[in-house]
């Protein structure tokens, strides 16, 4: 329902009807719609961060882990439901504190994972980067902006081009040539 109607326009009654449960049952578990939306966003963001942490802690080289994270974090397609949810949440988060809080926690955790992969690559001698935190913040901002353009189909950017931009930027941030990253664009 949230993906269909948007965070701001979805009502508890809509969710109850779509899930074939009573509104009373939903309110038994969640006092308000804000509580329900907060828990839905928290659960979604925690699952995404857990997936990224598993990649970050995986057995691959630092370059492979960074590339894997880049591929996972960009939209799979223009109608990627996860990205549509986050785009909507960013808009709502400008006005609603409970959504903004979840978004800031999610962004912070995502940047931490990215920073940790870069810092680990530095320790291993695979990367040269004197500011892993700054590199992670710059990559985050660039990826968010390009993913928005891609999702909105602005400028006819393909997913392959988006991934190429991400790889070029990541290579520059960690002191590598672009050729250190794969050429293929498979997710």
Automatic annotation (TrEMBL):
<dbReference type="InterPro" id="IPR001647">
    <property type="entry name" value="HTH_TetR"/>
</dbReference>
<feature type="DNA-binding region" description="H-T-H motif">
    <location>
        <begin position="11"/>
        <end position="30"/>
    </location>
</feature>
<dbReference type="Pfam" id="PF00440">
    <property type="entry name" value="TetR_N"/>
</dbReference>
<keyword id="KW-0678">Repressor</keyword>
<dbReference type="Pfam" id="PF13977">
    <property type="entry name" value="TetR_C_6"/>
</dbReference>
<feature type="domain" description="HTH tetR-type">
    <location>
        <begin position="1"/>
        <end position="48"/>
    </location>
</feature>
<keyword id="KW-0238">DNA-binding</keyword>
<dbReference type="InterPro" id="IPR050109">
    <property type="entry name" value="HTH-type_TetR-like_transc_reg"/>
</dbReference>
<dbReference type="InterPro" id="IPR009057">
    <property type="entry name" value="Homeodomain-like_sf"/>
</dbReference>
<dbReference type="GO" id="GO:0000976">
    <property type="term" value="F:transcription cis-regulatory region binding"/>
</dbReference>
<dbReference type="InterPro" id="IPR036271">
    <property type="entry name" value="Tet_transcr_reg_TetR-rel_C_sf"/>
</dbReference>
<dbReference type="InterPro" id="IPR039538">
    <property type="entry name" value="BetI_C"/>
</dbReference>
<keyword id="KW-0804">Transcription</keyword>
<dbReference type="GO" id="GO:0003700">
    <property type="term" value="F:DNA-binding transcription factor activity"/>
</dbReference>
<keyword id="KW-0805">Transcription regulation</keyword>
<protein>
    <submittedName>
        <fullName>Transcriptional regulator</fullName>
    </submittedName>
</protein>
């Amino acid at each position: 329902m949230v993906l269909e109607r948007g965070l701001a326009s979805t009502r508890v009654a809509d969710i109850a009807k779509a899930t074939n449960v009573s509104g009373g049952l939903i309110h038994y578990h969640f006092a308000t719609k804000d509580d329900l939306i907060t828990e839905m966003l928290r659960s979604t963001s925690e699952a995404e961060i857990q997936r990224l942490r598993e990649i970050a802690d995986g057995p691959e080289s630092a370059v492979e882990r960074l590339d894997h994270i880049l591929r996972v974090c960009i939209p799979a397609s223009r109608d990627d439901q996860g990205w549509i949810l986050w785009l909507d949440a960013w808009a709502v988060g400008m006005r609603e504190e409970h959504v903004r809080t979840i978004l800031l926690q999610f962004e912070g955790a995502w940047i931490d994972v990215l920073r940790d992969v870069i810092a680990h690559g530095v320790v291993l001698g695979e990367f040269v980067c004197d500011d892993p935190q700054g590199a992670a913040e710059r990559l985050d901002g660039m990826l968010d902006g390009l993913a928005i353009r891609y999702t909105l189909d602005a400028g006819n950017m393909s997913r392959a081009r988006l991934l190429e931009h991400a790889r070029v930027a990541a290579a520059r941030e960690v002191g590598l040539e672009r050729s250190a990253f794969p050429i293929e664009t498979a997710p």
